[in-house]
Structure formats: C-alpha cells, structure tokens
C-alpha cells in the first residue's frame, strides 16, 4: 500500500489526492509544514509526497518549486489538476438571527490559509466586512480551531472534507472570487506510479541553466523546441541562488522522454553549453467533475 506524505487532513491537497487515487488504498501521512512533506519522502518514511506547484489565481508556488530544485532531488512521477473549492464553515447555530436565518454580520473572525483568504475577498467584503481575518497554517487547521472554540463567533474558509471531519456546517458554498480556481499538484517519489485510469497527456519538466554571459541564450534554447514543433506549456525563470543575476529556466514540455524529439532537443541545448536537469517525465490527469 502506498505511503503518501501530504498536508493536513481535510486540505485541498487531501481532497486532490483522493481524486487522483480514486478507490486505490493508501496510507496518508499528514504534516502541517510542506517542508516536512518533502522530508518524509526524502528520508524514506513515505513513498510519495503531494506538492501543490501552481494555481490559476496566484500562479507558481515559488516556495515549493524552490524546494523541488534546491532542497531535494526527488523526481516528479505524476501531475494532476484539481479545483480549489473553498466554503464558509462554522457552527450554523451561532450565526442565526431571530427569524432563524443565517446572519453573517455575527461573524467576528474568519480564519484560513494565507492563500485562501485573498481568493475569497469579494464574498468577505459583501457578507462579512466586519470580520477580523486571521491566517493559519492550513484551511484544515482553521476548521479545527473553530471547532475547538465554540461560541466565539469564529468561522473558517476551507474544504467540504474538513467540515465533515470536524462535524461543522457549510454555511456558504464556493466562496472563492473565481469559479476557475484550479491547483496543479505533482506527486514526487523515487518510483513510477501506476494508476488504473488512462492519462490525459504526458509532460516532461526540465531545468535549463545557461552559461554566464551567453547573449541570446533563451532564444537559442527555445529554438531547439520550436523547429521540432514541441509544445511548451510553461516557462519560468528563477534565480539559481548562486550569484546575483544568474537564473535558470523551468520549462514544461508536452512530450515524453520516450519520444525521439525531446531527447534530441535536450542534446542540442546541452551542446550550446547549457546545463539540463530533467525533473520528471510523467502522466497528467485533469479533473472533469465526475
């Protein structure tokens, strides 16, 4: 049975992993800190780690990407996209008016993860502008705090899974500002993962570090992909952390390393004097709502 390191029970990461694995059994090892999630697999205490790396609204999760590049050497084995659906959660009875209807003006504090709160600003401004906003370690932790502090007028922004775990009420569903709020996750581990479902497509993630003082480096790198008609779904520059002004390029290619074209492109890029590191070549899955 797979041992999977993941953020706390009831987070979007937890929901996303359940979607990916479906009915396949696994043992979840939950951690409050993403660094502990990484270290668990690095130390061999888990077979895989679930890492959120990109969000529709907030873009790249730079901290997590830096961990993949600088802190650990664990290949990506799988990618999937899952909706980040947040809800307003609390004890419904605390917020009823004399007519028995929900009255969000009774909310004194709303807690959630620091990424989730900004994604729900329109709802908060419209229905609970008076509420104090507090960031905590995860959406699941926010629900746990609300559960342990009844009668305080506190609510949490979190997942349906977290509400069920702590037996609290979903007072408002889908409170994010945008309906297209999706998160891209990767499963990292030393071994390939075999799932029952067919992949939607294949992808390879690579790091390219050009030599110093190389005029037109990015243009020549991209040309190696362009004339082979290899589709790039993402390109991002990040500091190498070795010297001011030195950057590497993180590139996602919609192609497998099993093909002929991608290894040839990498060989051409290396011939230019660039360092190339393959972070993983893996299947990708997309949530369809089913």
Please, could you describe this protein's structure?
The protein is of the alpha/beta class and 290 residues long. It contains eight helices and 15 strands. Strands 1, 2, 3, 4, 5, 11, 12, 13, 14 and 15 form a ten-stranded mixed β-sheet that branches. Strands 8-7-9-6-10 form a five-stranded mixed β-sheet. The longest helix is centred in the last third of the chain and has 11 residues, at 261-271. The protein is elongated. It starts with a strand and ends with a strand.
What secondary-structure arrangement, pairings included, does this model have?
Elements: E1 2-6, H1 12-21, E2 26-30, H2 34-42, E3 48-55, E4 59-60, H3 62-71, E5 76-83, E6 87-90, E7 109-112, H4 121-127, E8 132-135, H5 139-148, E9 154-158, H6 160-166, E10 169-172, E11 182-188, E12 201-209, H7 217-226, E13 232-239, E14 247-253, H8 261-271, E15 275-286
Parallel strand pairs: 1-2, 1-3, 5-15, 7-8, 7-9
Antiparallel strand pairs: 3-4, 3-11, 5-11, 6-9, 6-10, 12-14, 12-15, 13-14
SSE pattern, N- to C-terminal: EHEHEEHEEEHEHEHEEEHEEHE
Oligomer: single chain
Distance between the termini: 25 Å
The description of the largest β-sheet is:
10 strands, mixed
Structural class: alpha/beta
Percentage of residues in DSSP E strands: 25-35%
Average pLDDT works out at 91
Q: Quick one: overall form?
A: elongated
What is the share of helical residues?
25-40%
| Strand elements, count | 15
Catalytic activity: prephenate + H(+) = 3-phenylpyruvate + CO2 + H2O
Pathway: Amino-acid biosynthesis; L-phenylalanine biosynthesis; phenylpyruvate from prephenate: step 1/1
Protein name: Prephenate dehydratase
Enzyme class: lyase
């Amino acid at each position: 049975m797979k041992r999977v390191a993941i953020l706390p029970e009831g987070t979007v990461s937890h929901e996303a992993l359940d979607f990916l694995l479906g009915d396949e059994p696994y043992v979840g090892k939950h951690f409050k800190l993403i660094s502990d999630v990484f270290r668990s697999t690095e130390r061999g205490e888990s077979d895989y780690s679930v890492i959120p790396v990109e969000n529709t609204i907030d873009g790249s999760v730079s901290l997590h990407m830096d961990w993949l590049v600088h802190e650990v050497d664990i290949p990506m084995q799988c990618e999937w996209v899952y909706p980040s659906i947040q809800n307003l959660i609390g004890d419904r009875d605390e917020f009823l008016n004399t007519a028995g209807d929900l009255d969000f003006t009774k909310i004194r504090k709303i807690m959630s993860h620091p990424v989730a709160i900004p994604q729900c600003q329109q709802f908060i401004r419209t229905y609970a502008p008076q509420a104090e906003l507090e960031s905590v370690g995860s959406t699941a932790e926010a629900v746990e705090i609300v559960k342990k502090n009844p009668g305080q007028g506190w609510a949490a922004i979190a997942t349906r899974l977290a509400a069920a775990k702590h037996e609290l009420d979903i007072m408002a569903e889908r409170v994010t500002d945008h309906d297209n709020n999706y998160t891209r996750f990767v499963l990292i581990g030393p071994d390939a993962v075999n799932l029952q479902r067919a992949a939607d497509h294949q992808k390879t993630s690579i790091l390219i570090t050009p030599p110093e003082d190389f005029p037109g480096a990015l243009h020549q790198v991209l040309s190696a992909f362009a004339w082979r008609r290899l589709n790039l779904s993402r390109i991002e520059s990040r500091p190498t952390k070795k010297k001011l002004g030195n950057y590497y390029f993180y590139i996602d290619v919609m192609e497998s390393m099993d093909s002929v074209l991608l290894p040839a492109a990498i060989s051409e890029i290396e011939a230019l004097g660039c360092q190339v590191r393959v972070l993983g070549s893996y299947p990708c899955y997309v949530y369809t709502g089913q």
